[in-house]
Amino acid sequence: MDTKLASLGYEFGPSRYSPNLGFSRLSVVISGRPAQRFFDVKTLHIPTFDGRFYHQTQVSRHELEPKETFQVCLGQLSLESFQGESLRAFSFGGLLEVTVETHELHCELTSNAPIFKLQEAPGSVGSVVVEEIMDLLAEKQVGLARHEDELYSRLAKFEPYQLFLACLVSLQKRADSFPVNQRRERYHKLVAELHRAVNTVKDTDGWDGRSPSLEDLLSGSA
Questions:
Q1: pLDDT tens per residue across span 24-39
Q2: Which of 2, 129, 158, 211 is least surrounded, with the fewest CB atoms within 10 Å of its CB?
Q3: Helix (H, G, I), strand (E, B) or coil at 189
Q4: Distance between CA atoms of 132 and 187, rounded to whole angstroms?
C-alpha cells in the first residue's frame, strides 16, 4: 500500500484524459476499526451484478473471503467512514478486486471508462451529466419487467467504455430534443458539460462522436 493511500484511506487514480475527465481507478483500504486516517473507511457501498441479479453490495472488513472479485454495475457508489462521513462516486462498471492484507481490506476498482467523484469543485465536468444519466436509467428501468435485474442483465453485456459513449450519445439526443422555451440554467450547464466531455473523448481517443445510444443497447438493436 502506498503512503498516500495509507494516509487518506482512499485514492483516485489519475485521469487518462486531458483536460481531466473523471479518474482511471479507485483504491480503498478498509479496517475493522478506526485507524486515524483522513477518511477512515468503514464500508464501501457499490452496485454489483452476479450474472443473474443486481445487488447493492456492502464491502466491510468482517464480511469477505481473503480474495474476492465483483462485477461492478453502472451506477453510484459510496464510501462510509467510522465518523459517519460519506463520499460518493459514479462508475460505468468495471471490476472490483478485494484482498485481505495485514488484517485490512484492499479494494481496487478498475474501469476502461471514467470514474467520477461526485463531490468535485464547482464547474467540474461530471456532476450534472451523472445526475442526468441516473434519471435516464430510472426511466428505462420502469419500462422493464423485473426492473433492476432486467436492466442490469442487459447492461452487463457491454464494456463500461461502450456504456459511457452510449450515455453521452443519449444525453446529446435528449438535450437536442428539449423544448427551446424550457431551456433554463440547468439545461445550459448540462450542454456545456456534455460538450466538454465529448470533445475531450474525441481528442484523446479519436472517437468520431458516433456510437449506439443507451436505448439501442437496451433494446438489442445495436
A1: 999 999 988 888 899 9
A2: 2
A3: helix
A4: 10
